[in-house]
Every structure is written in C-alpha cells, then in structure tokens.
Design goal:
The complex is a heterodimer of chains A (about 130) and B (about 200).
Chain A: H1 3-10, H2 22-35, H3 44-75, H4 79-82, H5 84-91, H6 97-129
Helix pairs in contact in A: 3-5, 3-6
Chain B: H1 3-17, H2 24-43, H3 46-63, H4 73-91, H5 111-129, H6 133-144, H7 149-156, H8 160-191
Helix pairs in contact in B: 1-2, 2-3, 2-4, 3-4, 4-7, 5-8, 6-7, 6-8, 7-8
Classes of the chains: A mainly alpha (about 130), B mainly alpha (about 200).
C-alpha cells in the first residue's frame, strides 16, 4: 500500500450537518454566561501586606537556619546539629517562650507560602490544559 | 478559510468585545459545521460531538479577550477546540460506535459501491481508533485540515516536525494493519456474495 492509497483511505468523506437547534443552544449558553455575575477578583489589596510579612518571616527563618547551622556545625560538629531540625533545637533559647512563638509563626508563614505556591501552580496547570 | 470570513470574524469579535453579545451568533453560524465535524472525528458520536462543540464555543466566548489577532481567528478557534476535544476524550474515551449512531452523510454516494465504501471507511476508522492517542490525534487533525501540516500542528499545539514524526509513525502502524484487514474484508465479501433476489 503506497502513501496515496493510504491518503485516500484516511481522507474522510463523511460530513455531518449540525442539528437545527445548535446555534440557538449555543447562544442560550452564551447569554447565560454573559448574565452570570463576574467572578470576584482576588483581594490583592488586603492580602499583599500579609504576603510580604510572610515572605520576610520565611526568609528570615531560612537565613537563621543557614547561619545558626554553620555556627552550630562549627562549634559542636555533631551529625544531628548539621540537620535543619537539629539546628532548630539548637537555636531555641531555653525557657524563652517568645522565641518559640516566633519560630511557630515562621513555620506558619513558610507553610502558608508553600500552600500558596502549590495552589498557584495547580491553577496554572489547569489554565494551560483548558 | 476565505479572507471575507476572516474579516467577518474580526468584526464580530470586536463587536462581542464591545458588549454586543448577539454578534457571537455570526461566529457560531460560520464555524458550527467545522467544529462539530472535528469533534465527530474524535468521538464518533453525533450527540457528544455537538456537546463538545458547544463547550468549545463557550470557551471561545470566555477566551475572546485573550485572542490578540496574532494568528487567524480560525487557527485560534481550532487550537482551542482541539485541545478541549483531546482532554474530553482522555477523560471519557470514545466508546465503540453503534451502527445507529453513524451520521447521515451530507453527500450520499451512489448505491452501487457506496455501501462497500462506507463499510471500508468504517473498517479504516476502527483501525485508526486502535492507535495510541498521539498518533490518532495527529492523523485526525492532519486529514481534517486537508493535509495542511502548519494548520494541523497549530491546532494540536505542537511543532511541525513533531507532527510530521507522529504522522510518519502513525502511518507506518496503519500500513502494517490495514492491508490484512482490507484483504480479509474483500475475501469475506467474495465468499459471501450479496443476495440478488
């Protein structure tokens, strides 16, 4: 079988005619779409300050991990201290609740940013696929 | 598509974007046939083809502000529709085609030989349906666009080279499957001649 024969076989001759109510049906759906209220835009004005604070806290936390990790790693040299979790315990001032609260806030900020990034990423994928 | 249609599309899009929703009807009227037929090539079900085409038009309406006129409206519309049809078919694959769902052809062929052609077309389509999705989609778009590689590639959102490679591979697969199938059908028709009385 040569290419021309295959082309002949694959060329569709069958053509269907749209049903008589198709245009009306589409226009009805379009009218409904147009009449629906516009989606509420994301409140960036209100979210932005919180986002900036979260980013700053997360970056501060990461920076402290790095610096304290290097410090503890140099002074103690233990395998546990070289790990991020080990560094966290090492840098916690004993008996100071404020520091642990700060740490909790930083973790929350980091979790918030990771969640936000995950949501944005999944929405981007969904938009591309549409 | 003709230049007149392209300018009509542009004018209608401008009117819709200016708030005249009824102008979208012109677009639907011009493109309903091609979009439904393209959907039909994918799913082989008339009812579902119309549903998918309606969804494509709805998405086109929503996405009109995103069309910047860099490509022809038809190219944009076909790319959008093809993308939607592929997603839909991956979500719910096309089932086996019941005989009653085969649409009436617009231009029926002569009775002598016409039925054999229809039978052969159906056999060919069944073989095409067995191909992996990427080769099947490439073949559907290529032949739907009357063997226009750039348009078919744009519709699928892939490079022309990629389309050519998929066409080559898909055709090789078909070449290995079709002759035996067609020969088997021919020998079967010789062995079982039609009743003449």
């Amino acid at each position: 079988m040569n290419d021309d024969e295959l082309d002949q076989l694959l060329m569709e001759r069958e053509e269907i005619v749209p049903s008589s109510g198709f245009v009306a049906s589409v226009m009805e759906a379009v009218q409904q779409e147009a009449a629906a209220p516009a989606p509420i835009p994301f409140p960036w004005k209100w979210a932005l300050p919180g986002l900036i604070v979260s980013v700053a806290m997360a970056m501060g936390m990461i920076a402290r991990w790095i610096f304290s990790g290097a410090r503890v790693g140099n002074s103690v040299g233990s395998a546990t201290a070289a790990l991020p979790v080990g560094n966290l315990f090492a840098m916690l001032p004993h008996g100071q609740i404020a520091a642990s609260t700060l740490l909790a806030l930083e973790w929350s900020a980091l979790a918030l940013l990771v969640s936000l990034a995950a949501v944005r990423f999944s929405m981007k994928i969904a938009t591309v696929r549409e | 598509m003709s230049r007149i249609s392209a300018s009509e599309d542009q004018a209608d899009v401008a009117r819709v974007l200016a708030g005249e929703i009824a102008a979208f009807e012109g677009i639907v009227r011009r493109w309903q046939g091609p979009l439904i037929n393209l959907a039909y090539r994918f799913c082989r079900d008339r009812g579902r083809a119309e549903e998918m085409a309606q969804e494509a038009f709805l998405r086109a309406y929503r996405g009109l502000p995103k069309w910047r006129g860099e490509s022809a409206f038809s190219t944009w519309l076909f790319a959008l529709a093809t993308n939607l049809y592929r997603s839909e078919l991956r979500r719910i694959p096309a089932g086996a085609m019941p005989l009653e769902d085969i649409a009436e052809p617009r231009d029926p062929r002569a009775i002598d030989g016409g039925l054999e052609d229809l039978d052969r077309d159906r056999a060919v389509r069944r073989v095409v349906d067995t191909l992996p999705a990427k080769y099947r989609e490439a073949l559907i778009c290529f032949y739907f666009q009357e063997m226009d590689v750039p348009t078919a590639a744009a519709g699928l959102g892939i490079a022309e080279g990629t389309l050519k490679a998929r066409l080559f591979r898909g055709r090789k697969m078909l070449e290995s499957k079709l002759p035996s199938l067609l020969e088997a059908r021919e020998s079967h028709s010789y062995a079982c001649p039609k009743e003449t009385a």
